[in-house]
Amino acid sequence: MRQLSNPTARVASRAAVLVGLSLWISCGGSAPPDTMVTPGGAAPVDGTASFTVAQADRGRELFVAVCGECHSVGEFRGNTFQFTWRRRTAWDFYRTVSSTMPESAPGSLSDEEYVQIIAFVLGMNGYAPGSRDLAATEVELDQFVMNEGPGGS
Ligand code: HEC
Question: Are 74 and 147 within 8 A, CB to CB?
Fold first, then answer.
């Protein structure tokens, strides 16, 4: 029994490889240029902004105390969250959250506190903390693409 080596089967499997290859090439070629994919994982777009462990820790406390009344932490990380926020940055997230949340009292936290919550969310979505505090400015927050981190739970 050497059916796999008959010429028809060989041609068919070569054709399958070629179809697969051209699909792969056409997918890669049509990727939108605005996704800012950073090779090797999540990093701020131009590398100058960072958030600290202290900010993310404080953000976690605030999240539990303020947002936890209505939201679970799991809503703000992983594939579903990143899909919702794809192509948007931490600046968009910050503006949305600081102008609409907490729903019962929008804008009631300080800029610093909102940024601490953003730092916590970035940390949950694949960004590593660094040595400089993140500031509540468009220039800094725009460097973090919300769906850049690896997906997850
Ligand atoms: C009193 C309940 C309540 C609290 C407290 C609250 N939220 Fe919300 N949040 C909601 C509800 C309800 C929605 C859905 C509103 C909508 O879709 O219009 C929502 C939606 C959101 C969204 C999605 C907004 C969008 O436009 O996609 C984000 C992000 C969010 N909340 C973040 C937060 C954060 C961060 C905090 C803490 C600072 C917080 N929320 C506190 C009730 C709350």
Answer: no
